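Module 6 notes. Inverse folding takes a fixed backbone as the condition and produces residue identities as the prediction. Think of it as a translation problem where the source language is geometry and the target language is the twenty amino acids. Below is one complete input and output pair. Work through it position by position during the lab.
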């Protein structure tokens, strides 16, 4: 739908709608990474890798951007503006290398994570500017949406924090996940980021996927 065609402009409405869903989902994902980085690493890798929690926490911005980047960049490719990405890619690599050399020497492996965050933020931001110039995809509404989802993620994080940030029992994981998800959705509703129509649409799409898989 974003492919450049002779008689049809890219479907910017679809681009915005899809990006909106990605931004909402990614804020939901990154909240546990920030608050529960230690329990997550302990669950995945064991107590021997407890120190890696600092790296996971430092990589939270990168994790947040990791689904946004491929969507925005592929959209630009399909719209026929792939060449405009080359300077961004080269500049990002150089910035990443320079920051790695400086920050790793200063603060160790966490510095590499911070370097990745900074360079990737520049990478994504620059591509959103290209999308704005190429097929008139707005930026300010997306930034506003990001900020509102961050508020919802903060509410979710507060719920997770209430169950602890180190050693979690089974019920802590379950109750924290349920209450955190509920807080996230409630704040999104209150801030009018999502509506009842969105819930109905998502439920319908999930139902169709289940029927197809069955």
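Target side of the pair, the amino acids:
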């Amino acid at each position: 739908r974003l492919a450049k065609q002779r008689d049809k402009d890219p479907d910017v409405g679809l681009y915005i709608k899809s990006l909106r869903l990605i931004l909402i989902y990614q804020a939901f994902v990154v909240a546990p990474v920030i608050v529960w980085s230690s329990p997550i690493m302990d669950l995945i890798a064991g107590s021997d890798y407890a120190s890696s929690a600092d790296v996971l926490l430092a990589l939270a911005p990168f994790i947040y951007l990791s689904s946004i980047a491929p969507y925005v960049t592929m959209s630009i490719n399909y719209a026929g503006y792939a060449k405009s990405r080359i300077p961004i890619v080269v500049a990002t690599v150089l910035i990443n290398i320079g920051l790695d050399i400086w920050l790793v020497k200063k603060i160790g492996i966490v510095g590499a994570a911070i370097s990745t965050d900074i360079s990737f933020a520049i990478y994504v931001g620059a591509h959103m500017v290209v999308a704005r110039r190429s097929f008139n995809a707005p930026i300010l509404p997306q930034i506003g949406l990001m900020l509102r989802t961050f508020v919802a993620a903060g509410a979710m994080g507060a719920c997770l924090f209430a169950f602890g940030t180190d050693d979690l029992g089974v019920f802590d994981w379950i109750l924290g996940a349920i209450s955190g998800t509920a807080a996230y959705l409630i704040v999104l509703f209150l801030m009018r980021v999502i509506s009842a129509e969105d819930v109905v649409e998502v439920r319908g799409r999930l139902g169709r996927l289940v029927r197809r898989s069955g």
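Reference fact for the lab report: The radius of gyration is 19 Å.
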